[in-house]
Amino acid sequence: MNKRIMFLCGYQSLYSGNFIASLMELENELNRQGSNCIYVFPKDAANRPWYKELVNRGKSLTTIDFTKSKLEMAKRISSIVKEYDVDILHTHLCDVIAIELFSLLYKKKKVDVVIHIHSDFSCGKENLKTIIKDFIKYRLLACKCKFISVSSYIVRKNKKRIVFVPNALATNRLFANDGTREEIRKAFSISDEQILCMVYGWEPKVKGVDIAAKAICECNKDNKDKYVLGIVCGREVTKDKMKEFISKNTSLTGDEKYLIYFEPREDVFSYHRAADLLLSTSRSEGFSYTILEMLSLGKKCVISDIPGVLWSHKYEKNTFFFESENDKDCTSKILEAGDTKNLIDEEIAKQVKEDYKISIWVDRVIKEYKA
Q1: Planar angle of CA 140, 142, 147, nearest 5 degrees
Q2: Is residue 51 within 8 Å of 61, Cβ to Cβ?
Q3: Nearest to residue 8, comparing CAs of 69, 70, 86, 72?
Q4: Which sign, positive or negative, has the C-alpha torsion 20, 287, 207, 161?
Q5: What is the per-residue pLDDT across 21-58, written as a single tens digit (0 to 9) for each?
Q6: What is the C-alpha to C-alpha distance for residues 89 and 81, in angstroms, rounded to an integer?
Q7: What span, in angstroms and rounded, lies between the C-alpha atoms of 139 and 166?
Q8: Under DSSP, is residue 197 helix (H, G, I), strand (E, B) or coil?
């Protein structure tokens, strides 16, 4: 396979995480097969440590302005594709319609367009507006594109053009781990007797931070602040904005001592190690890296039972499912999961790492390139 592949990524997170590590594994195999890759990110990504590290490693990178209109984006993509003589355009976290406009209006040569669907921001709700929008994206404008979805649930939107390829665990991260369980807990004054439940809430409504906060409040009514909710904030949703969200959407103020706010960081596994439970209280999901990562450590997860997490039912010893948006049911499942004291299920950890090893994902993506 001797191709030029462009990874067009609307990604500018503060940390590289599993996403960048996965693309690097994909690039390594493509290089081995004789292909070359170029990464394209939003302009602000150039300020991130991970972007600079990619530059240091000799990767081929450039940036574009993702704030432009759909039509302007399509034109700019066309110019980059022409400049680098791209054979395959593989997009991630991009405006789907902008990519489709490129495929319909600006392709000057045979370029295969692969749109990777990572997220589901529907909050589990479907109305006439979303149905029409999905029809336009996945059927009306999709005739010259193929889609890879991280969720089997999305495939139903166009079974002829969407294939299901779940995410995988990329262990070869850009940066080394930099925090032990004890160090993280000490830094936030969390005792060993307390149960730290971690929720990742960069989009608090979709991720159900309000549900998690209400459930932990209930857990503590008979447990004297035994349960602590660690809320990992985002680049845009800062600590203050997260508090505001909680105060507006619950009876809490956001300043309760059992609510602890964590900044996003490169070494997310240090947070996983510090936690006793993961709370995945999302109203909708594509494919949750955090569930995958916590299960790969053999830790327990309390999860809202939504379509995007169906895959995790397999690991029933470590997963506790509650009815989506039902904070009372969430409370009971947290209490059922119990005081784990950082107990590790090595059997589950081993199985998850085998089921979701990155080589499987790489092979399946390349298979779609060749299809």
Answers
A1: 140
A2: yes
A3: 86
A4: positive
A5: 999 999 999 999 999 999 999 999 999 999 999 999 99
A6: 8
A7: 22
A8: strand
Residue 38 forms beta bridges with which residues? 6
11 closest CA partner among 23, 3, 1, 2: 23
In the 8-state DSSP scheme, what is residue 264? Answer: -
Q: What is the pLDDT of residues 209-239, one digit of tens each?
A: 999 999 999 999 987 889 999 999 988 899 9
Whole-model pTM?
A: 0.92
Q: Give the C-alpha separation, 114 to 188, whole Å.
A: 43
How many CB atoms sit inside 10 A of residue 2's CB?
Answer: 8
Where helices occur in the chain by DSSP H, the ranges are: 17-32, 49-56, 70-83, 96-101, 128-135, 181-187, 204-207, 209-219, 239-249, 268-274, 289-296, 327-337, 346-355, 358-370
Query: Which residues lie below 8 Å from residue 31, measured CB to CB, with a gap of 6+?
Result: 37
* Confidence category of residue 72, pLDDT binned at 50, 70, 90: very high
Q: Any residues with CB less than 8 A from the CB of 271 and at least 6 apart, and which?
A: 184, 198, 230, 232, 262, 265
Instruction: Encode 111-144 in three state secondary structure.
Output: CEEEEEECCCCCCCCCCHHHHHHHHHHHHHCCCC
Instruction: State residue 145 phi and psi, 5-degree precision.
Output: -130, 160
Count each helix (H run) and each strand (E run) in the chain, helices first: 14, 13
At residue 123, does pLDDT exceed 80? no
